[in-house]
Structure formats: structure tokens, C-alpha cells
């Protein structure tokens, strides 16, 4: 049995990808048997090489090898092409004709694009796979054939079965052994190697110097998605070999030959909804509530620390950032405190000359009892906050309702209704 490297050299297969090597190994292993093989993979990956390997290593290697593209034969004549027909069986049948299965008797038949077969033809093919029997079109005589069937498809067979475009029993007959060839984008290390091979072949064919890629062009070559796989890469190499005067190809030159070039990188999606951080009335209310909750929790913390320590100056020193957050700036008027004196003035709202008497309890729940009382005294109105937001938006936009509504993230009609409600 020949090894993988020898098979590659014999059939001109380029690449060292582990998935490619595994596919060739499976082909070598199943070749001596007569079991059916299904080769899967995207269009252009080189599926036609696997049936040739299987046939050449089998005991049928001296028989015929017939390759049939099932997708290229019209539905009305495919039965005649595969199984033959009798004279006069249909219009134009002026003589008896042998089909591919009869001609390939004792050899191998390769059914490329087998997923494109009509359902009626699939029934006939299933019978050939089961017992080697077929009937010519227009005949009633059953004939026998001894062929090895290797099929290939780029169709997702399970989806085709679910859509009832392919028979499930035929799929399992064909795929006794399934060999999958990876797409070129999964064989990154082989891309430049294949390009160099194609470039050398075309240089010899057209009698011209071999083209070479610079470093940036090689990087671009490897990043490209290659949806057409090896076939597309070969075509690009041929185009550049024929059309380019310069034998050294830059990244810009290569990019001009790559259709719809897009790097194989994740796309960045912009999720921003509008120019402001809220887009409707509900979000305005949520924002106000979250801000209130945050400020209230900060006040709880500061008040509790004052009650526990009783040291007003030390608390001010330790909580400058927190105090400045609560009292130090007004987001609507864009004013801030620039000095410690300003902070002291702001703190006049919390005059605590001596710590209040705390209940003689040790539980944490009792300590927070007074902080919860503060929450009841804080009665900020959502309507007042909404009114302030609307006033500020109108002021910033010189009374223009359309611009103010856009800033608030509400419709102009809704803003007009709010203005009438608050009598602005």
C-alpha cells in the first residue's frame, strides 16, 4: 500500500494540512474494497481527486473509470445517460444506446454532484446499489452490472433529506464511507504553497518568468476567505501570470484581482440607538430612578458614618469624593466646587454638632433603621425631574421643539403634549 506522500506526488496534490492527509489516508484504506464512498466538501476543493485515487488503488484499476456530472445533465435525459435506452423509447431515440452503468461494468463510476439527481433517478440508483440491477429506458429487461460507485457532493445532505430533495435510504447506501475535504480557508499554511505551484505551472505553460508575491501580498493571500477554494486560487494565479508585466506582485496589485475583498475578521457592529442616552419616556424615568437610588445610597452611607463617629471634620476629609459627587456639582447648571471652602458651604445642609444617641442594639439591622427614615423624608417628584429635563432641552435648543424632542429621545408630538401638560 502506497503512503500519503507518494499518492500526493502521483496525483499532483499540494498541501500538508492534517485534514487533507486524513482524507487521503481514508481513500487509500477503502480503495481495495468495493464499498461505496461519498466525498463531501465545498465546491472547488478538489473532490475529483479522491475517486481517481480509489480507482487506481483498487482491483478495478484496469477497468473503465467514468466521471459523470449529475448537475450538468438535464432531468429529462439523465435516466437515459446513466442506464441507456432502447430504440424508439422516446422522440429522438433512433437507436439503442448503452448507459454509463453498462459501459463502466467491471470498473468505477464517479457521480459528481450526486445531490442534484432527480428523485425518480435516485430510486433507480438505489436499486443498482442494492443488487447491481438496472433497466434501460423503454425496456422491460433487467440487466446486471458490476460497478464501484464513488459519489461527491457540495450539498448539505441532511438539509436536502429534511426538504425531501434526497432520499435518506440512498444517502446511507452511498455514504458507507464518507470522506470530507476541508475548504481552503481551513488550510492556511497550504495557500501560498498552492499559489507558488500554480504560478510555476502557468509560467511554464505560457513561457514567461514566474510571478512572485512580496511579504504583504502573502499576508493578504492568507487572510482572504477563498469562497471558491482551490479552483478560485488557481484562476487568480493564472490571471496574474498572464496580465501583469511586473513579475513581483504587491499587495495592492493582488487586491485588485480579489473580488469583494473583505478580511476574514470579526465585524464591528454599532449598537448606538441615538445621540442621547435615552430614547423614550420610559427610559427617562428609569434614568431618574437609578440616579435617585444611587444618590440615596450615598447619603445613607455618609449619614451612618457621621452618626457612628461624630467627627464632622474627619468625615469630610475621608469622603471628599463622595461629598463632591452628591453636593459638589450640578449636572444641569454645569457648576462645580473648586475649593475646600465650597465643600464646607455645601455641607452646611448637614449640621451635626454631636452624634445622636444610638439605640443599644448590636444588630446591623438596627443601625440602618435611621437611614431608612431618611429615605421617607426624600420625596423627589418624578414629574419635577421630567419638567427640569424638558426645560433644559428647550433652553439648549433655543425653544425648538423638534431638536429638543430628538435630544430627549421622544417624538415631537409627545414633547408638545408634555409642554401643554406643564404649561411651559
Automatic annotation (TrEMBL):
Domain of life the protein comes from:
Bacteria
Where would one find the signal peptide in this protein? none
PROSITE patterns linked to this entry: SIGMA54_INTERACT_1, SIGMA54_INTERACT_2, SIGMA54_INTERACT_4
In the record, what terms sit under GO molecular function?
ATP binding; sequence-specific DNA binding
* CDD domains referenced in this protein's UniProt entry, alphabetically: AAA
Q: Does the keyword S-adenosyl-L-methionine apply?
A: no
Q: Is this entry keyworded Protein transport?
A: no
According to the UniProt entry, the coiled-coil residues are none
Q: Which InterPro entries match?
A: AAA+_ATPase (IPR003593), AAA_lid_NorR (IPR058031), Homeodomain-like_sf (IPR009057), HTH_Fis (IPR002197), P-loop_NTPase (IPR027417), Sigma_54_int (IPR002078), Sigma_54_int_dom_ATP-bd_1 (IPR025662), Sigma_54_int_dom_ATP-bd_2 (IPR025943)
Give the GO biological process terms: regulation of DNA-templated transcription
Residue span(s) of domain Sigma-54 factor interaction: 13-242
Which keywords fit this entry according to its UniProt record? ATP-binding, Nucleotide-binding, Transcription, Transcription regulation
PANTHER family from the entry? Answer: SIGMA L-DEPENDENT TRANSCRIPTIONAL REGULATOR YQIR-RELATED, TRANSCRIPTIONAL REGULATORY PROTEIN
What name has this protein been given in UniProt?
Answer: Regulatory protein, Fis family
Amino acid at each position: 500500500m502506497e503512503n500519503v506522500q507518494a499518492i500526493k506526488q502521483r496525483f499532483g496534490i499540494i498541501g500538508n494540512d492534517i485534514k487533507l492527509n486524513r482524507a487521503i489516508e481514508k481513500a487509500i484504506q477503502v480503495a481495495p474494497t468495493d464499498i461505496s464512498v461519498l466525498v463531501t466538501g465545498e465546491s472547488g476543493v478538489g473532490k475529483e481527486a479522491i475517486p481517481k485515487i480509489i480507482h487506481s488503488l483498487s482491483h478495478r484499476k484496469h477497468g473503465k473509470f467514468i466521471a459523470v456530472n449529475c448537475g450538468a445533465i438535464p432531468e429529462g435525459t439523465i435516466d437515459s445517460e446513466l442506464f441507456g435506452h432502447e430504440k424508439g423509447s422516446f422522440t429522438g431515440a433512433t437507436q439503442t444506446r448503452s448507459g454509463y452503468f453498462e459501459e463502466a461494468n467491471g470498473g468505477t463510476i464517479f457521480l459528481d454532484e450526486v445531490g442534484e439527481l432527480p428523485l425518480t433517478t435516485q430510486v433507480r440508483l438505489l436499486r443498482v446499489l442494492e443488487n447491481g440491477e438496472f433497466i434501460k429506458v423503454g425496456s422491460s429487461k433487467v440487466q446486471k452490472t458490476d460497478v464501484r460507485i464513488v459519489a461527491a457532493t457540495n450539498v448539505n445532505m441532511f438539509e436536502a433529506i429534511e426538504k425531501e430533495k434526497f432520499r435518506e435510504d440512498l444517502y446511507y447506501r452511498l455514504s458507507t464511507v464518507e470522506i470530507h475535504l476541508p475548504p481552503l480557508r481551513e488550510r492556511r499554511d497550504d495557500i501560498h504553497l498552492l499559489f507558488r505551484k500554480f504560478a510555476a505551472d502557468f509560467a511554464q505553460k505560457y513561457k514567461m518568468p514566474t510571478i512572485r508575491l512580496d511579504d504583504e501580498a502573502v499576508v493578504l493571500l492568507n487572510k482572504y476567505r477563498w469562497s471558491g477554494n482551490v479552483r478560485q486560487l488557481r484562476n487568480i494565479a493564472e490571471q496574474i501570470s498572464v496580465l501583469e508585466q511586473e513579475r513581483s506582485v504587491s499587495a495592492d496589485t493582488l487586491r485588485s484581482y480579489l473580488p469583494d475583498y473583505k478580511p476574514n475578521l470579526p465585524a464591528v457592529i454599532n449598537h448606538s440607538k441615538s445621540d442621547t442616552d435615552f430614547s423614550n419616556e420610559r427610559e427617562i424615568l428609569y434614568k431618574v430612578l437609578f440616579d435617585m437610588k444611587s444618590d440615596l445610597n450615598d447619603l445613607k452611607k455618609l449619614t451612618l458614618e457621621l452618626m457612628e463617629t461624630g467627627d464632622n471634620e474627619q468625615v469630610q476629609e475621608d469622603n471628599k469624593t463622595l461629598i463632591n459627587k452628591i453636593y459638589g456639582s450640578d449636572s444641569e447648571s454645569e457648576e462645580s466646587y473648586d475649593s475646600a471652602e465650597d465643600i464646607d458651604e455645601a455641607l452646611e445642609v448637614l449640621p451635626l454638632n454631636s452624634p445622636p444617641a444610638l439605640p443599644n442594639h448590636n444588630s446591623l439591622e438596627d443601625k440602618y433603621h435611621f437611614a431608612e427614615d431618611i429615605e421617607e423624608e426624600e420625596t423627589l417628584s418624578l414629574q419635577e425631574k421630567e419638567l427640569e429635563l424638558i426645560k433644559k432641552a428647550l433652553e439648549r435648543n433655543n425653544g425648538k421643539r423638534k431638536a429638543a424632542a430628538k435630544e430627549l429621545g421622544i417624538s415631537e408630538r409627545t414633547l408638545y403634549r408634555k409642554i401643554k401638560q406643564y404649561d411651559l
